[in-house]
Amino acid sequence: MSMSGTSWFLQNDTCLRADKVPPDAEYHRVYAGAGRRIGRGLIAIAALIAGLVIFAQICLAAASAIDTHLLGRTGFTPLQFAAGSLSLALLIPYSMVLQRWLYGLPARSLHSVAGRFRFGVFGRALLAFGPLLLVVMSVGVFLTPDDAIVWSKADLVAFFVIGMTLTPLAAAGEEYGLRGLMFRVIGSWTGGPRSGAALGIVVTTVVFSVLHGSLAPYILGSYLVLFGSMAIITWRTGGLEIAVVLHGVYNVSALGLAMMLHLDIGADLGSRGQTVGTPVNLVPSVGILIITGIIWWSTSKSGPVRTPPIANE
Q: Is position 2 within any domain?
């Protein structure tokens, strides 16, 4: 992975040669081999979706039992929200286990083509792109009409703690499952890196957007932009770090603004399928597209970041 012409936020991060990871391969082509291995890929995707459902059911059932029998609460509670976030966060280790089991690759190679989590990339992306995303998220919430509800002090504190701890991990879990494991699986099914990237980006974007439960044009459009951009960024930068940053800031800022304005989070999540949406839903998409354009431009000379070549090459 040469640093010549590499964007500044991708420089100076050590690469670790991971066993069985092919040399000089783009992120989504690490599973590619002599055969398409479509059957194995379908098993991986089915296991990923099954894990997502099972983790959610177990975590939500446990939270509901505690709410009902110990706290005397029903409906949408901080514990229910924490359970949903935890179930998504569990996709991080689970995706690594599936990769190890089905493809025999080290768990750490799921982070990036560098064979490790690039904390330098993560930090520089947070500093460079976090403020812009916070601004567009704030503008979007400001322009969205909504009625405030009464929040208890205990719930506000609980949601704050959850938002600062579990919400970023939940966003990361979605990235590791969809833009990590599934993107690599689908990206390995074609004959070349470009076609693999196109197929992987389109399929993971559409699947994950639909799974969010709304077909309203403006809301669905915002999902398509967000998740499509995360896939493109993962491909171009050779790892999940920047996608984790952006998705985390996106979700944490949305939750934080909703708390500050005392919006009804439970109703918004529960009625996602019935919400019509407005053009305002696309305001954050403008910021996401700008960031994606910057990353594409900054990697235009070097191309997508690849796994390290063999030492004597």
A: no
